[in-house]
Amino acid sequence: MRSPHGDSPDARRYHQVKLKGKWLEQAGFLTGMSLVVRVMEGCLVITTQPGSRLNEVLQQSDRLSAQSRLELEQLIQGLARKEASRGASG
């Protein structure tokens, strides 16, 4: 884990874990999916949000052409950014 604020001793630190790679999709994690993170002593368990309609749509998107899937992912990312900015301002 590393801090996104550099190594400055007076920088406010937030830990982050970045997961990326084709293995995520192979494991059933698609861009835009809702996730649940369970925290236990020395352990993080990450699962998809059960019953999420968005997750169902994303899982079925493998039937789409590559271009359509890319457009769907871009739409979802745009909606997520819009929702995040709405939450930050309200």
Automatic annotation (TrEMBL):
Transmembrane intervals: none
Any GO CC annotation of this UniProt entry: cytoplasm
Gene Ontology process terms (BP): RNA metabolic process
MF terms (GO), sorted A to Z: hydrolase activity, acting on ester bonds; RNA binding
Toxin SymE-like domain mapped to chain residues: 11-48
Pfam family, one: SymE_toxin
Full protein name: SymE family type I addiction module toxin
Organism: Acerihabitans sp. KWT182
